[in-house]
Amino acid sequence: MTHFPDDILALARGIITDFTAKGWMVATAESCTGGLIVGALTEIPGSSAVVDRGFVTYTNTAKMEMLGVQEQTLVQFGAVSKETALQMVHGALFRSRADFAVAVTGVAGPGGGSAEKPVGLVHLAAKARSGALIHHEMRYGDIGRDKVRLATLKTALEMLITLGE
């Protein structure tokens, strides 16, 4: 069993309960969180009614092969960009049976940041099959790898809740 903070488990529990009642399914596309989002969701009993699949696409090659992210997007904007997050969420939604998908790509640290893309920069996208779309650019700062990843996880779950309202 993974130990997620209570606030994150409460969000995940709410998604599983609400989406189960509505017959909705979710897919995730994760880079900097490395599967934490799908992990938090599957921590909740009954999650198999809601979680269709999770894509962990840590490398650019994985993003292209598994989610259909265009090489030109990665070259022009980089892996940590709004454009990449949007292509990731689109790919997760349309390469699954999910009604909703969420995607995250960022720089969790401690290294890997730059002036243009500092540690703590994360792009998140959530999309409904109906077409509703949310994008957030979060700048958590250099608060430590674990804190960046947990903050990203929390934001991603909140975005799914918002889309499901």
From TrEMBL:
Domain CinA C-terminal intervals: 11-161
Coiled-coil stretches noted in the UniProt entry, renumbered to this chain: none
Domain of life: Bacteria
InterPro entries cross-referenced by the UniProt entry: CinA-like_C, CinA_C
Pfam families reported for this sequence: CinA
Name this protein carries in UniProt: CinA family protein
UniProt organism field: Rhizobium mayense
